[in-house]
Amino acid sequence: MSSLLREEIAGVPVRDLARDFGTPTYVYDAATIARKVAALRDFDVVRYAQKANSNLAVVDFVRRQGALVDAVSAGEILRALAAGYRPGATPPPIVYTADVFDREALELVVEHGIPVNCGSPDMIDQYGAVAPGGEVTLRVNPGFGHGHSKKTNTGGAHSKHGIWFDELAACVARAARHDLSVTGIHVHIGSGADLEHLALVAGAVEKLALEVGPSVHTISAGGGLPVPYRPGDPEMDAAGYYQLWDETRRRLQDRFGHPVSVEIEPGRFLVAESGYLVTEVRAVKQVDGRPFVLVDAGFNTLARPILYGAYHPMSLVPADGEPRAEGEAVVGGPLCESGDIFTQEEGGEVRTQRLPQAKVGDLLVLECAGAYGAVMASNYNAKPLPAEVLLVDGKAHLVRARQGLEDLFRDEKIPQGS
Fold this sequence. Notes:
- It is a single chain.
- Strands 3, 13, 14, 15, 16, 17, 18, 19 and 20 form a nine-stranded mixed β-sheet that branches. Strands 4-5-6-7-8-10-11-12 form an eight-stranded parallel beta barrel, surrounded by six helices.
- The relative contact order is 0.16.
- The protein has helices at 14-21, 30-38, 56-64, 74-82, 103-112, 121-130, 168-177, 195-212, 238-256, 268-271, 304-308, and strands spanning 8-9, 12-13, 25-29, 45-49, 68-71, 94-98, 116-118, 135-141, 163-164, 181-186, 218-220, 261-264, 275-287, 290-295, 314-317, 326-332, 353-356, 363-367, 387-392, 395-400.
- 27% of the residues lie in helices and 24% in strands.
- The protein is of the alpha/beta class.
């Protein structure tokens, strides 16, 4: 069978999934998530950046694989707690990492004793004012960044993320005024960075840790690990990357005279390849000689292509089960928006993608869709949020029900007498 034709996901027939849960639906293969966590076992701590996919069942499954969790908001703190993470252990099960505190998040980290990774000087003051005498780690912008898109670049002079490296000494002094000890350094340069740029992070962290001094007991490699979306993309050399960080850690231990823990903070790396967006073909038409395949998912369901020009592998599940001739096609969604195209480059240029000839009623599967898919979904054009399904040992579990049409305006009110 052509790699562009598909019958099942992790042993479960795609037609059965569409029949039982409707379309569009996100489907996650738990075995893939477990395999990706295991690939990083050499690191002292694997800390899941749940913003990539914060479904409670996914966060719980990651926890059961032995990974800890990162939270970037009050809501993500509550999700981590609901998924079974319990603060108070060493290393900390939940860490709050952000560039700002909203008031709810500040209250929750104090209430639950959740360690804070500060990305701005003001965070140090705000935390120190309510929790003096403790510890913080600092997220530092090393002055460079790299990612699969300019919009996912989280380092350098154009990034809002982290404490600028030249301000590190001042921030250590600021922490000291609140009797806060700086116990860790965290650097993250972007999502989808290549290994050449990621290797630079270790050197930057080593230099920053030495500047802080022996109070540092933890260094974090951040995330941004590459994911093979396109055929031929290389797999991540997890063992080689760990070796680089282990050498960095050993040099710091020699200087400081005490153990230093190495954390890694993957998000997309753990869940992207586990995810499939199952959609139904609702129309096929010719536009200037090119076939346009229109499905019932749009950028309200999966925003990565319109945001970043992101590429997703695609496969077809023919309704009649018969082989199809292959050709180039544009794939788009149902929204009243010209940008509602899944096959586009960054900047909006429409491209084609090779697919079997599609017909109305076929199923189209967008692959590598487990990260930044459902979490970015919206109700644009008054479209309900999709269902989410987790596959565990060949069994499909509904882990988020499809939003109903009435749910779209359940909380809205028309003022009386207006």
